[in-house]
Specification:
The protein has one domain (about 5-135): 3-Layer(aba) Sandwich (Aminopeptidase). About 35% of the residues lie in helices and about 25% in strands. The chain has four helices and five strands, in the order E-H-H-E-E-E-H-E-H. The protein has helices spanning about 20-30, 35-45, 100-110, 125-135; strands spanning about 10, 50-60, 60-70, 80-90, 120. Helix 1 crosses helix 2 (about 35-45). It is globular, with a radius of gyration of 16 Å. Bound molecules: coenzyme A.
């Protein structure tokens, strides 16, 4: 059960959810990115059939979490796999299984797309998200992330 006792449900995102999604992302990251999210939603509407998954968790009528994932084919020399691009749950709705349900629903979508592997990237210092993904059975992958600065 979620806050106020309303049961959780998971469904595809709708346009009217975006205000809550933008607010939740701003709460978690400290940066409000309205344009980014609106363009991501528009792209999602166009590409939903071809591999992007954008789901929300609701408690009653309130959006309490979201997950975004995407199936990518053959990038990095890898057979098609599902990527978890972002997952957030409102602080007052945490530890009630919302993220677990969101990830399970996303993985179901990936399975329907005949994908057999799910991957994600996370910041090394973000032990909270690491604990969550580990609890779901995700482990260190054989891929190594690399980067370099492009500005002097
Ligand atoms: C990580 C996050 C998504 C988990 O959401 P949630 O709905 O609370 O997760 P769940 O209730 O499904 O928890 C599942 C498991 O994750 C682990 N977990 C979740 N929160 C935890 C915490 N605070 N400390 C330790 N383990 C935790 C536990 O193993 C938990 O299982 P348990 O309740 O049986 O112990 C949520 O805390 C969040 O939104 N954090 C900030 C988001 C973020 O940093 N995103 C990174 C950008 S993608």
């Amino acid at each position: 059960m979620a806050p106020q006792g309303a049961p959780l449900s998971i469904r595809a995102v709708r346009g009217e959810d975006m205000k809550a999604v933008i607010e939740l992302d701003a709460l978690v990251t400290g940066i409000k990115k309205r344009e980014y999210w609106n363009s991501l939603y528009q792209r999602h509407e166009k590409t939903a059939v071809s591999g992007q998954h954008f789901l929300v968790a609701t408690a009653g009528t309130k959006v309490v979490g979201f997950v975004i994932g995407e199936v990518r084919d053959w990038e990095f020399g890898s057979p098609p796999c599902g990527w978890v691009l972002a997952i957030d749950v409102r602080p007052e709705a945490r530890l009630l299984g919302a993220a677990t349900q969101l990830l399970q629903a996303l993985c179901q979508g990936f399975r329907r797309a005949r994908v057999t592997k799910v991957r994600t990237l996370l910041a090394r210092e973000n032990t909270l998200i690491l604990s969550f993904f580990r609890s779901q059975g995700m482990m260190i992958s054989p891929f190594i992330p690399l980067e370099m600065d492009l500005m002097p």
